[in-house]
Amino acid sequence: MKKYRIGIVGIGAVGTEMVRILRERRFPAGEIRIFARSERDVTIAGETFHVETASPGAFEGLDFALFAGTEGARGASQRFGWEAVERGVIVIDNGDDFRMDDRVPLVIPEINPGALRHHRGFIANPNCSTIIALMALAPLHHANRIRRFIASTYQSVSGSGRAAVRELEQQLRDYVHGNKLQWHTYPHQIALNVIPQIGSPSLELVGYTSEEAKLLFETRKILGNDSIQVSATCARVPVFIGHGIVLHIEFDKPVTPDEAQRILSNAPGISVVDDLENHQYPLVINAAGQDHCLVGRIRQDPSVEHGLILYVAGDNLRKGAALNAIQIAETIIQMD
User: Fold this and answer.
1) Of 155, 171, 198, 286, which one is least surrounded by beta carbons within 10 A?
2) Per-residue confidence band for 71, with pLDDT thresholds at 50, 70 and 90
3) Residue 92: CA atoms inside 13 Å, Cβ hemisphere, count?
4) What whole-number distance in Å separates Cα of residue 175 and Cα of residue 173?
């Protein structure tokens, strides 16, 4: 089997998860090199890697470069992404700098792998909440066109990076010990709280945040349908890993909960957990560490014609980021 030389740019929460998943999936990596702002050694799952300083020349000879920046953190792919492509590297970017760029496919391998056929060496990962939502929405859309959906997201602090995780940990300790809570990562206390803002005010949609706008624009690009109407409200919750999303969906034609459950049960990357009587439904604590997204609470929406409601939970660091990027690389290898 051919071996590939892999570069990972950034070794925060997502970059660390990328290394773990490459090893877990036995990706045919002949070499894994890690680039960051400063040189040092890091140990991941018992394996020590030397972190190199990122520079244009560092990408020479690589097959793939996975840019692992925290959502919304700009810089690395803008500075080095296309430079790496010019050196013959296939770039897969977890950041949001190029997602809506016409040159760049926006890909969830279970949903639109065909978008990779004519890539120009640069592929973008969708936003974590978009990936988790569409894992449930796309199979239903392919069976019965979706006119619109309303998404309410409950997103964990790991989506903001390690500093946010540490901040929640410290606030919980301070609360237990009766100390004054402090915060720097978020504009408000996150422990024992819910913050209904993720991202900055959107430039395209007045009154919405950038995170909420992504669900609209990225969904349309991935599904290749600009007529789908989307409205989202995104909230940060005091959970370490895992996003939960409530979806109110309106279809072109009638669909029953049983039909939706059958479609989703046969969809790749989905596990249906839906037994309300026995308290079985998707929990982010169960989704954490899993490759599949969990879907449940599937029910009719009597407030709209041809409507369904469901709840989906997924690991934002795995399927919402690192795993999706590695699946893109695996799909490209299979196509070749």
Assistant:
1) 286
2) very low
3) 29
4) 5
